[in-house]
Design goal:
By secondary structure, the protein is of the alpha+beta class. Helix content is 40%, strand content 14%.
Length: 617
């Protein structure tokens, strides 16, 4: 039926480990993965309220924060399209003050299922460094004193050498040192990168979770599943993006595409056109630095890049990536033209445990602060932090991870950095989370998604770049406002389904809600229609929004940086464009059944969500 039937509940303050049954009522209502984790967090807040702890009083880096690693019914199921992922959530992000949420590929998610568990709940905090050993239906807390201070690569190797066939999720020095955008890394180069989940793990004294075992999840209806999954894989193998573009050039195929559309954010979003974009493109990466393709567990696409830099100051004999977002943040946004330096900076982010999007964006923010004379030169300690300086970008990655010199300010993220130096508008973030690589002045739908994405500035919450730029499932005008609210809501709800299944979002280039309904019906044994799965997605999105409302977030926070609202794009196909966000939000809220960014009681009643506090309109 796709579920293992067990959840691991770990209290690090008590040093206790409990095996509990998977709550199938929650699983039916919220599917798994992100949905299951969101429901667990909501139930936790209910318990806290009974104890007199207000949601607003939860300390993101305190022992009361709760971290949930969750798989879904698709994770680890043989041949389910790209089913090698897991989702991580926490009550509160140290970077945004809202719900923490991140997603990662590799093989850790399936290996957690093979260990016999659907999810792991981490509570409390250990007074000493520990790691968690999870195998064959059991778990044990172990000392990590010999691992603390080590990089993610070292930690993974030590534990893999010890346990053999396993998968390791861990933090590096950035998570240990409380960098607010620290990532959780698994299988060396796969990252649950966004919202600072690595810092939360570090605050709990939890260095790593190693998983493995011999159990295997099975579909409820094997014959029906076999037929349906073949059709789904055939669709993936025949779609131009998933059969041609991503396997050939990886996600970095987008560099030239997005730059040609005039929405490749350059020089901290001062423009949307990079004059030397081809030098850092997927085509150049494949020509000069690619060793071979890579793939996550169960993936039919194989978009990962195994790379090397043969010689020079940025030499690295073996690495993975960088992905499109990393190339943009560490390169495009900082005006770097040296792809070898971007590969090195990306490698260091993986090794030290940093979110590449927030890292590169924060460096770009710092560069503009320096350009505008906001940072005293002595504070830079000799670093020439100007746009286009590749060596400075590489230098600031490790300085940030260790909070060395000016790195201690970058470790706070761009929002706090810009505020500290008196220029808050230079942080290109929403709700404190740095924006990814698409300028909404030239693609209005992604702007609405950025503003309304629950976790903050996020593209994968509702990837409307797919229809706006790539023409999938159909081509729509990126500059028009009409219909964008509908597209954003649909993409956001379907993405919640994918992240709760849990499998790869790239499958949605070829597969839609109906495909997911058929596949999940065969896996779970429940009869699901496309309307059913979209309702599940909508329920998840609204429950997450209710938690945000408890923290005080509402329509006032569904905003975009001032630059995107008031500064016309200076050049390219989107020249002269800004974003009329209020126009988009009005239609979106109406479709959502929200008022001022808050779900109404009527909407929550319709979705079957019970509220325990006055947090709705």
């Amino acid at each position: 039926m796709g579920y293992m039937g067990r959840v691991l509940d770990v209290n690090l303050s008590e040093g206790s480990v409990r095996v509990e049954r998977t709550d199938m009522e929650i699983a039916e209502k919220y599917l798994g993965g992100k949905g299951y984790a969101t429901a667990i967090l909501y139930e936790t807040l209910k318990e806290y309220a009974k104890e007199g702890l207000s949601p607003k009083d939860v300390n993101a880096l305190g022992e009361e924060n709760v971290l949930v690693f969750a798989t879904g019914p698709a994770t680890g199921i043989a041949r389910f399209p790209s089913s090698g992922r897991y989702h991580v959530m926490a009550l509160k992000s140290p970077l945004t003050g809202s719900v923490a949420s991140a997603n990662s590929g590799g093989k850790w998610g399936p290996y957690l299922k093979f260990a016999g568990f659907d999810a792991i709940i981490i509570r409390g905090a250990s007074p000493e460094p520990v790691y968690l050993e999870v195998f064959d239906g059991g778990a044990e807390i172990k000392s990590a004193s010999h691992l603390w201070g080590r990089t993610t690569f070292d930690t993974t190797k030590i534990l893999t050498d010890k346990y053999g066939k396993c998968s390791v999720a861990c933090i590096g020095p950035a998570g240990e040192n409380g960098v607010l955008f620290a990532a959780i890394m698994n299988d060396d180069h796969r990252a649950a990168g966004r919202t600072g989940v690595g810092a939360i793990m570090g605050s709990k004294g939890l260095k790593a979770i190693v998983v493995g075992g011999s159990e295997r999840p099975e579909p409820a209806e094997p014959e029906k599943y076999k037929e349906l999954v073949k059709k789904a894989i055939d669709k993936i193998k025949s779609h131009p993006v998933t059969s041609e573009g991503l396997p050939r050039y990886g996600t970095a195929i987008l560099v030239n595409i997005i730059n040609n559309a005039g929405i490749f954010p350059t020089k901290n979003w001062q423009t949307g056109v990079h004059p030397k974009a081809d030098a850092i493109s997927g085509e150049t990466l494949a020509e000069k630095y690619l060793i071979r393709n890579g793939a996550c567990w169960g993936c039919q696409i194989g978009c990962a890049r195994v790379t090397k830099v043969e010689s020079g100051p940025y030499q690295i004999k073996y690495s993975e990536g960088p992905e499109y977002e990393s190339i943009w943040s560490l390169g495009g946004s900082t005006c770097i033209e040296e792809l070898d330096a971007i590969i090195k900076a990306n490698h260091l982010c993986d090794e030290l445990g940093l979110d590449t999007i927030s890292m590169g964006s924060t460096i770009a923010c710092a560069m503009e602060l320096v350009e505008k004379g906001c940072v005293p030169e002595e504070m830079l300690e000799g670093i020439d932090l100007r746009f286009g300086n590749a060596a400075a970008v590489v230098e600031m990655v490790w300085r940030t991870a260790y909070k060395s010199g000016f790195g201690k300010y970058l470790a706070l993220g761009s929002k706090r950095l810009a505020e500290m130096f008196g220029c808050p508008d230079l942080s290109m973030s929403v709700k404190g989370l740095e924006l990814p690589a698409y300028d909404p002045r030239g693609a209005k739908g992604i702007g609405l998604n950025y503003a309304t994405a629950n976790r903050g500035g996020c593209h994968v919450t509702g990837y409307t770049i797919s229809p706006e730029i790539l023409g999938s499932p159909e081509k729509i005008d990126p500059l028009t406002y009409e219909g964008k609210a509908m597209w954003v809501k649909a993409f956001q709800d379907l993405t919640c389904v994918v992240n709760s299944a849990v499998n790869c979002l790239f499958t949605t280039f070829a597969l839609g809600a109906e495909d997911y309904a058929y596949l999940l019906s065969a896996v779970t044994g429940r009869e699901l229609t496309s309307d059913d799965v979209m309702l599940i997605g909508e329920r998840i999105y609204n429950l997450e929004r209710v938690i945000m409302n408890m923290y005080g977030f509402d329509g006032k926070d569904d905003v975009l940086p001032k630059r995107l609202l008031e500064e016309p794009m200076p050049e390219g196909p989107a020249k002269g464009e800004v974003v009329d966000l209020e126009r988009l939000k009005e239609e979106y809220y109406k479709l959502r059944g929200w008022e001022n960014g808050r779900p109404t009681k009527e909407k929550l009643r319709e979705l079957g969500i019970e509220v325990f506090a006055e947090v709705v309109v």
